[in-house]
Fold these 3 entries.
Entry 1:
Amino acid sequence: MNAFVYDLIKGSYGIRVTIFAVFILSAVNIIFAIMKTRKRNMYSYRIMYYIGALVFIVFNIFLFGYLSIVDRAHGFDFNQFMIYIFNSCTYFIIALLPLIFIFAVVIAISNIILIKKEGGGIRNLLGIGLALVLIGGTLIILFVSIFSPFDNRFEFVVETILFGLLSYFECIMIGTFIATFITHRSIPPRDRDYVIILGCGLREDGTPIPILKGRIDKALWFAKKQLKETGKDIVYVCSGGQGDDEIISEGESIRNYLVEKGVKEDKIIIEDKSTSTYENMLFSKEQIDKYQEENGISEEEKIAFSTTDYHVYRSGNIAYSIGVKALGMGSKTKRYFYINALIREFAANIKAQRVRHIINVIVIVALYAIFHIINYMYYNV
């Protein structure tokens, strides 16, 4: 009780509660933002940012609560607040380091298995590259912070900014992985008119590779389930152009597989010009519109799409970005391939949002610069 009274008299208790309340309200606000965004577009990149921010804020809620309990008998003023701001990202990185190390080991093992089964190549080494960047970057920054060759103040500025940026990208990575996991487990409502099957490669004889076969089988499973539950049939949109090493288009190969499985020709639309997910969605929508017009269908179409589990989130975002409100489902992929594929999706998301990331990096650096200027002018943290 004496410590509580001391806190109250000094004003420290009120400051701590205010900061803690701000963290809690921020977390609640982000949760509601995620729920609201999911209702409008469950594939929005905003969800990735929101989840990353929520992870960081929740960490700080526990960290600030712990530090407040441990240091309860001492005053808490703006000087201590500055110390906390400068060190929060450092604590975050250090706390994640064991998990990052375990993740890196898992990535390395899965990549070794992937290379043994499917051969080498830059794309199959992405996991190991990311693991080295995460662990190497963290260890280098920690080493610099402990054995810095710079002047103390300059080293402090560089250290806090680097930890801030590393925290940002680790939060984005976590947000991407969680958003990808959530979306690939979702199944569209059983009221779809069309299902777009995204092509992804053929064997030498023109038949689907296992990943593409999985996408087609997932679409067939959904169509069967929908027909059983609602009595509504579905039209398949076979999407994919012909690669330089392919004897037929992916769209034609998907169509052949569907026919072998007993699907009637009049329930199949072929799109055979696309070379990317963006074109898959765009050209498939054009074919659907054409089919609607030819068959005198005026009702707004309800579209599903079938791809591989790790690819649902980004595919859905691409679809919504061009006005195709399609809901996706994901076929399973091999475990050793899944992790490396997640990293590819993370890299693709970073590229797709590169302008926003650049802006965010500038904002982070600017905020740290402001805090350092305030600290230099008024405090000596």
Entry 2:
Amino acid sequence: MLRGPLHEDGYRPKLSGHETFPLRYGWLKKAFDAVSTGGVDGEGRSVFLSEDAIARFGVGRNMVASMRHWAVAAGVIEEVGRKPTPTELGRRLFTDDGLDPYMEVPTTTWLVHWRLCGNPQNTTWFWAFGHYPATTFVRDALTGGIEKLAKDREWPRAAHTTIGNDVKCFVRSYVRRPASSKASYEDALESPLTELGLIRSAGSRDSFRFIRGRKPTLGTGVFALAVSEFWAEYSTAGTLSFEALAHEPGSPGRVFLLDEDSLADRLLRIEDDTLGAYRWSETAGLKQLIRTRTLDANEVLDLIKQDYVSSGREEAA
């Protein structure tokens, strides 16, 4: 049976907005700083649409649009009535005295990855990590899978070229490009997401492989946050099965490409990581998390602080 948010009636896909540019270093901080001063210019236009946007951000018009897209997609800013404003996550990370304003700690990149690939509003990212059934793939296979889903669900404006460009940007976001003397400086810059090592070339030019395993740089705080956010969207029940955490679309197991043993090891420790809010249970062969209390939105974000403390950075106020 088809399941997950992408198959729900009324789902609206998002297959563009990045202008084919992957996320780049410094973009989230620049976008956050720009909207932190009010988000609009003197005439009430978004800072991303103002006449001086190119000078403000130091990139071309299309890259300004891409920067805006990634900041929204990663949950660093939000747009209410088309006015961009910082989110609480953005404030915690990207203020000058924030947890990691320049993305120097792997925790921040893992958190961005989670917000991109655990969010069904980012269609290709969510589908690739949450639905694609194989370990290896070629770009055409991802494109074809999303096209079939678009046709089955009768999504509007889901043209082959649009989906293909989205898939191309997705791959470039995670796979390091081979060195080339012909590449421009801008083109040679890697996306910070390549550092996670989640997708690698499988030998040929257009063959790639998802890398499943332990993920030693994935902090316990980001993992606990992901469990909390997935649970809130998936079920209102006070228990959550291991099967759901490992295999449901948008689950931590799928988004972080954790094998079952690695996922189980993390769940065994989650009671300490959440100060008792969640407890792992294996009774009568039933593996599940038990929620002893519900964490509010600020408490969920507080979970990530432990990762920055353990990385050697001082805890932000």
Entry 3:
Amino acid sequence: MKTSHEPLVHIAKRDGMAWWKGWLIRIAAALLALVVSALFIYSLTKMNPVKVYGAMWNGAFGTSKRTWVTLRDTMMLLCIGVGLAPAFKMRFWNIGAEGQVLVGGCATAAVMIYCPGLPTWVILLIGIVVSLIAGAVWGIIPAVFKARWNTNETLFTLMMNYIAIQLTCFLVAKWENPYGSNTVGIINQSTKAGWFPSLFGQQYGWNIVLVLAVTVAMYLYLKYSKHGYEIAVVGQSENTARYAGISVKRVIVRTMALSGAVCGMAGFVAVAGASHTISTSTAGGRGFTAIIVAWMAKFNTFVMILIALLLVFLEKGATQIASQFNLNDYASNVVMGIILFFLLGSEFFINYTVHFRRREKEAKA
């Protein structure tokens, strides 16, 4: 007679963990990642890993200009992560942030190109409005299909990215300057019409103020508003939401409009506040990287600030050590990948517990 045996390893979801314990696990994972990365670096270069980590810090914060560029890129990534937060909390897997950023950027570029004679503050006001609308529309389309016909939102939003890329290619060809360059060039370079003005003498000051304001507003919206409560209920169980009298279809469309609008605003920040041009690389893959930001922060927009800063720091640092120590990009990306692997892996031990099978004698005892 065959008898079934208990598996050697049993994984169970944790009921809950104190916040400080979770952060201790994350810190331990980060330290372990640094140790493993140090071993990898030493095996390649035979150099002191501390010097390499110092070079990473120098690449991100070594000068005032580098510091502000790091903060600029952090705000861009943070804005997209904040935009993804309500959709992900609702368990609507919005993979289309890349496209939503591009259409928001295209809308902003159009205002700067076709209305160069208006005062800068008017261009900026119109630009942020049209970028919000463009991003919202790009988010509403897959939401309507999901709400009405239960389509797969992951594939739908992913395909919307490719449409946005082709739309951007069309507009770049239409607006190319100079003719035949297949690039838009710097928009309004001589007049700077539609550019973010300096704040306290800093070129990217308004980028930080605007994105941090949206970060705080989204935190309050998700935590304290009725809409935020409905998003959380729909994310936990659509049947429970219906039983409570919540219109699930309305919540899906409304939340994706908000998610797309904030991502579209990231396109506005990128064009008017950073690059002052538009291309298919305006989003720069941040729409996908922001998924890590939103997920690791558990949709807490304040925690997203730290996660976004860490990812940008790793990116800048990896580029620095690649050039300073004659490492190719693959080696520096491996270091970045090791650190992300441990950080993401720590979330498993925070959310799940691993039990090993006890011996038969122990079980009887």
